Amino acid sequence: MKKLLLSLTVASLLSVSAYSISAHEGKRHRDIEREIITSPSLTQQQKEDIKQIYKQTRQDLGIYRTEENQFRISMRAIMQSDSWDQVAVTNAIEQQMQITLQLQLIRAKSKNQVFNQLSAKQQAQFMANRDHKKGKKRNANPERKMQRLVKALDLNSDQQTQLTVMMTNDKAQRVINKEQVKNVRAQLTGIIQAEEFDDSAWLAVHAQNKQKKLDMAVSKIQSRFDLLSLLNAEQGDKFEKMMKKPKKGKGSKKRDYDSSENEYLSN
Q: How many angstroms separate the CA atoms of 27 and 23, rounded?
């Protein structure tokens, strides 16, 4: 059980602590890249130029792999503790945020370069397509998620009560964060879609929201830690299998249900 807590909590931290480029985020970026490059409206020269931008971006991102691995090692040591260590986790997240900031800056500059490869008409079409896809997103259903966990893990009444409280608090916090998430995303998008990328303005937005990012990250990780702490050994084994088992059906790949928060600082 402790091994499960360790592995899942570290994985959670890596994906949300500093809004880093997780496996899902990486796939999302690749999907966007593929969509742009295969667009029939692009000229062959545009496609070649954009491919070169993406190639350079991947090389630049690779520079930070060593730091990412070192962070994983340090976090595993911290999470070996039998109790939640708020100070240690917060310090680790702050260190990781510095790395993630550089990764996000590389991504943002790449997006700016690609956006400015497009004509005004192509830019308008790209934004229209993006807005259309956002409108089709489905929100997670906490009640259904709760029902699945209760049935799959055979939770007793006390566990169900505690889980209900956790999920209610989590939902309330996400509602509070939603408007700020929206505002910050709009600021970052404006910088990315400018003719010239303004490093200072982009960094200023992140600096203004640093504490909020940190608080959101620690809160989310604590929630997951508390959730997993409710389970006994048998339930923990079942939960581990649930996490590893791929879902069936189109568009059913595992996704962080707080993706709206994770995405707003991927700019």
A: 6
**Structural element, H or E, at residue 17:** none
DSSP state of 255: -
CB under 8 Å to 115, separation ≥6 — which residues? Answer: 123, 126, 192, 193
- Work out the burial of residue 83: count CB atoms within 10 Å of its CB; fewer than 13 is exposed, 13-18 middle, 19 or more buried: exposed
Q: What is the pTM of this model?
A: 0.70
The interaxial angle of helices 44-62 and 23-37, nearest 10 deg, is 160
Q: Tens digit of pLDDT for each residue in 108-151?
A: 999 999 999 999 999 998 888 877 777 665 555 667 878 888 88
Side-chain-side CA neighbours of 21 within 13 Å: the count stands at 23
Cβ(120)–Cβ(232) below 8 Å: no
How many CB atoms sit inside 10 A of residue 44's CB?
Answer: 7
Could you identify the residue written with the tokens 């999920």? Answer: 167
Burial class (CB in 10 A: 0-12, 13-18, 19+), 142: middle
Phi and psi, residue 132, nearest 5°: -65, -40
Tell me if 16 sits within 8 A of 220, measured CB to CB: yes
In the chain, domain spans: 2-127+142-241
pLDDT digits (tens, 9 = 90+) for 188-197: 999 999 999 9
Tell me if residue 247 falls in helix, strand or coil.
coil
Backbone conformation region of residue 232, classed left if phi is above 0, alpha if psi is from -120 to 50, else beta: beta
| Residues written for the chain | 267
Task: Please choose, from the candidates 132, 130, 234, 219, the residue with its C-alpha nearest in 3D space to the C-alpha of residue 174.
Answer: 219
